[in-house]
Amino acid sequence: MQRTPLSPFGMAVSGLQIKDIPCASPQFTDLTRLVATSRVVVFRGQALDDADFVQFLNGFGDLTFTDGETPVLGAPDLNVVTNIGRTTPARSSFHTDTSYVAKPPAFSALRPVLLPSSGGDTLFTDQVRAAARLPEKARRFLMGRTVLHGAAGLDGQEQTTRQPLLRRHPVTDEVSLYLSTRKRCTELQGVDAPTSERIIAALYRHSTRASAQYRHEWKPGDVLMWDNRVSMHKADHDNLTQNRLLHRGMVSGEVPLFATHAAPHSGSAGAK
Fold this sequence. Notes:
Elements: E1 2-5, E2 11-14, H1 27-38, E3 40-43, H2 50-58, E4 63-64, E5 71-72, E6 75-82, E7 107-114, E8 122-126, H3 127-132, H4 136-142, E9 146-152, E10 158-164, E11 166-168, E12 175-177, E13 185-188, H5 193-207, E14 214-216, E15 223-227, E16 231-235, E17 245-251, E18 257-258
Parallel strand pairs: 2-3
Antiparallel strand pairs: 1-2, 3-15, 4-17, 5-6, 6-17, 7-15, 7-17, 8-14, 8-16, 9-10, 9-13, 11-12, 11-18
């Protein structure tokens, strides 16, 4: 297995067929840490179907599914991500997958089924780096505070959960700035509504600076996996004129942990 660092963070892995890793292999422990510390990992040159994809993801834990998504025919643990058949232009903003439930997904992964000849990139932020680059006074102010995460469920009812704004990673002990898209993050604990809106907006801008983003340009055979606890992501639909179809799987996570120290640990990705 060859590992190649990406810029400004992330890791590309080649020389490994992920469908050949045994289900109970201790290699999944190493891969779990690799994804956590790299934020996003690209497995190059993969030849696998949905069953192989599900088997690989099961090595990291139980799979989870977000209400309201479209399941993949024949692989109900996966959902469809596509612009095919849309009547309105596709849009995306930086977000964390399903952050409004008590136990948000730990990992998400995509395998391409149909790729355009150009466009349709996926962008990522490093939320450990975002936390580390906050002024110390700001980190101390935010320590122990929660943000209300919410979204409408399948039945149209709003699902909401309070999550720590500064979150501790259960594997690396790193501290991340845990956010999602602006419309899903409201009510910073302990401040009035206008102040809450202003602070969350500032933290979101701080996290999504263009110079700090990793842009993934899809290639056939790529499988992309990321840690939702330490990253945000979005699809870039600008200049996308052709069909794009991917299948997504998500691995269950834990109840988010509060950071226990104001100064974040610097991991291999966050230090870049």
